[in-house]
TrEMBL record:
InterPro entries: FIST_C, FIST_domain_N. It comes from Azospira inquinata. This is FIST C-terminal domain-containing protein. Residues 220-360 form the FIST C-domain domain.
Amino acid sequence: MRDGVYLEQLSEASVLAALAAWGGGVAGDFHVLALVPEGERERVPLLQEACRQAGVVLAGGVFPQLLVDRELVGQGVVLLRIQGAPAPLLVEQVSRTEAVEPLAARLADYVESGLGEEEEGALFCIFDGLVPNISTHLDAWYLALADRVRYFGVNGGSESFTPMPCLFDGERCLADGVLLQLLPRHPGAFLEHCYGVPEQVITATSAQGNRIVQIDWQPALERYREIMARQYGVAIDRDNFYQHAVHFPFGILRADGEVLVRIPVGLDDKGAIVCVGEIPPYAVLTLLDARQCGDAAAALARDLAQEPGMAAEPLVLFYCAGRRMHLGSAAMAEEIGEVAQLTGHRRLLGALSLGEIGASARGGYPLFHNATLVGVPCLQP
């Protein structure tokens, strides 16, 4: 992601002017990844038409809000210029079980055809945030590609978790899909959340996709309510569930010490707890206290300092919507400002995300996260 611009007005004229400044048209050697706020989703056809007129390949996603420097904005569009990379893939109907293996095979062909034999690269993805089997897809991708690429990505959609078309290319706008972009010679992204781990653990004794049906052999809501009352002094009911649950998400404890955050976002009719991201059956869980999370901005800045091209402008930054809901807008702005200050970036461009994807170690296994900051170095050619 080598260049970026924020357009305050999303119109054919403003997009055409930005593309012309980049040398769009037949002579252009780039395509565009666009980030659109939910409030502007009806203008995606204008964006598509402008790119068709300019002869520029387009792909992108709709997010709750855009991140521009230290502020969240609900209008306009962020355009990221992608150079020296193959055209993106937009795949629909990925929530079907029978879609997992064919997509992994198609992805392997896409990567192998787009990278030289010894060339390194990264794979960036945007999922519809309502796809319930993202972790299953990531497992299949790793089986097909292993460490051939560095994996990172985010989820788009509505912060209300209302189904809507949130992924697009030059012709289509769809839901239940994933957008895939291979980035040759790109180092990938860095993810941080800095949640501490309490000593008490529980078990998801029954889980179906992104729904926890039972905890410790009890109905999930009943057991969650009991733990919240005893451990944190918080009384939970159906009406206030999300208001409190965002501050006390689940943590999946992995054998390697990694903690995967799962933010509960609702309850189904039978009392199962619905999360952003899959919960493996019999997963060892804990309830995290978001008030006790560490300095993720400093940790992210340390990570980014390892990357030689990190100082190039802008830094692409995605920020979890659940983290914002817990911290509040003022604290979120302070955290983002700390990232800018510690990394020396004058420009930050990105979006509010509904789940994040990355590896716990550089070049490692792709995992699905919540509550993270995702920093993407924007390398110069």
